[in-house]
Design a protein that fits this description.
mainly beta, 2 helices
Length: 252
């Protein structure tokens, strides 16, 4: 029985330090901004910009590069780029790890399951502990995640069964249903930082497996707040925003 790192708190939340992935220590890494068109978020203190993806990244299969090229061209022409965060769509995996740096992430740890909750729109992931994957999981927005603890400080999450409706990042890098993601949430010795390492495999979209990093800092929170998205985000000025998701039939 492995020791369990304490990730879940009622009075603390975990905030990602960036809405971009960080480069891995070595090897192929994620798509980042084109050096000629650097991305600046609203939190940088500089004039914010939209994302323009670096098409020279060698991890991209030709069709994935073409998809990003089209997005780049539309963005540079003035069309607002699609954003799961602003339009209330589920970000998938590993997109959830850069979903929002403005809302905290919470971990609910029980013996058989870890529930990962992003306060923004109450996005929920369920990680089933110490069980194998299903033989043929039905593709879904967050896929099927199984996990285990390692070394007394790390939660390892293995995810398959993702649909192809999401993107792996906020540059809108596409993927296929063959996407396989492994996340390692390592609690640092001070108990106040999580170092997340991510490995991504998808032969349908990428030329090679690649890795990325994210960091979560612990900050005090009064309580988890209800952060409703779909009631507020409408295309008031007819700029061409993707509308919020809408069910065409009840799920009960």
């Amino acid at each position: 029985m492995h020791a369990v790192p304490k990730l879940g708190f009622s009075e603390f939340g975990w905030f990602p330090v960036s809405d971009d992935f960080q480069l891995p220590p070595s090897g192929p890494g994620p798509v980042l901004s084109d050096p000629a068109h650097p991305y600046f978020s609203n939190q940088t203190g500089q004039q914010p910009t939209f994302r323009i993806a670096d098409l020279s990244n060698p991890i991209l299969q030709p069709w994935a590069r073409d998809s990003l090229r089209k997005t780049n061209e539309e963005t540079r022409a003035g069309k607002p780029p699609f954003s799961p965060r602003e339009t209330c769509w589920l970000p998938g995996v590993p997109g959830s790890d850069v979903f929002s740096r403005l809302r905290p992430v919470y971990f609910l740890q029980t013996p058989k399951q870890v529930t990962i909750i992003n306060e923004g729109d109450a996005q929920v992931r369920r990680v089933y502990l110490n069980v194998p994957h299903s033989l043929n999981p039905k593709p879904s927005w967050y896929g099927e995640s199984v996990g285990h603890y390692e070394n007394g400080d790390t939660l390892v999450v293995d995810t398959i069964g993702l649909n192809a409706k999401t993107f792996v990042d906020l540059y809108l890098t596409p993927h296929t249903e063959r996407l396989h993601v492994v996340e390692r949430f390592r609690l640092m010795p001070n108990g106040k930082i999580i170092e997340l390492s991510i490995t991504v495999e998808d032969e349908g979209a990428f030329t090679t497996p690649w890795s990325a990093r994210q960091t979560y800092n612990q900050d005090p929170q009064w309580k988890m707040e209800e952060a409703i998205c779909a009631e507020n985000n409408v295309d008031v000025f007819n700029q061409g925003y993707v509308p919020p998701p809408e069910a065409d039939k009840p799920d009960f």
